[in-house]
Write a structure and sequence with these properties.
With 254 residues, the chain is an alpha/beta fold.
């Protein structure tokens, strides 16, 4: 089968991917760049990883740049997006992928673990959407894709903070989709299940095997499985899709 990016052209478009230096984020960056988008790879701390992603993009004949800012800071976000728009003229595609987990049972969960996860995974998306949507509204076009999680739909024990943030992100997506639809800006969410190379790398092989037993497709997903859904939602093929949750989970949650 042809690689998804060979079938879709994003030539001339600028994409900003938060948390683009590893896992799902890096796969999204590579796939959007392979389709012709100029990709801004955001990172907070892992500059070397972001440089690696950019080197991979350049090797594939793509183009882009890296941008360090913390989505938790509204001021940093505003400065960074203003710089990108000044440089590129616009941001066509925004992929909100930056996320952290601080797992623990509720009785032992510290305030900091709750606040850090909500701040990055939910408030961070608010900061960047507030900033980028102004420019998209002026251009009367844009795509916003928020990376949620099965944890936000089905819940996960030991992850009340993460599940709450990801569930909140789905509500945020639907409200923003209604708000921005009159300006031709589409807002959707991609909700991955168990993806290898992501947070699931902290699990043992026995734990992974137990999880796979619950997945109808009997395998964990890949970062490319998720990136392909993001690419589709970024493309002209998704012109009539907004406010939706696209589940990439092998049937784990239906």
């Amino acid at each position: 089968m042809a690689h998804p990016s060979s079938m879709i052209s994003l030539q001339g478009q600028t994409a900003l991917v938060t948390g683009g230096s590893r896992g799902i984020g890096s796969a999204v960056c590579s796939m959007l760049a392979s389709s012709g988008a100029f990709v801004v790879v955001n990172y907070r701390s892992s500059e070397a990883s972001a440089q690696d992603v950019m080197a991979g993009i350049k090797d594939l004949g793509g183009d882009g740049k890296i941008a360090r800012f913390d989505v938790c800071s509204g001021d940093e976000v505003d400065r960074a997006t203003a710089e990108i728009i000044q440089d590129r003229g616009k941001i066509d595609i925004l992929v909100n992928n930056a996320g952290i987990s601080r797992d623990g049972l509720i009785g032992r969960m510290k305030d900091q673990d709750w606040n850090d996860v909500l701040s990055t995974n939910l408030s961070g998306v608010f900061h960047i959407c507030r900033s980028v949507s102004k420019s998209m509204i002026r251009n009367r076009k844009g795509r916003i894709i928020n990376i949620s999680s099965t944890a936000g739909e089905a819940g996960n024990p030991g992850q009340v903070n993460y599940s709450a943030a990801k569930a909140g992100l789905i509500g945020f997506t639907k409200a923003l989709a209604r708000e921005l639809a009159p300006r031709n800006i589409l807002v959707n969410s991609v909700s991955p299940g168990i993806i290898s190379g992501g947070l699931s790398d902290q699990l043992t092989e026995d734990q992974l095997e137990a999880i796979r037993a619950h997945v109808p497709l009997r395998r964990t997903g890949t970062s490319d499985d998720v990136a392909a859904a993001v690419l589709f939602l970024s493309s002209g093929m998704a012109d009539y899709i907004t406010g939706q949750v696209i589940r990439v989970n092998g049937g784990l949650y239906m």
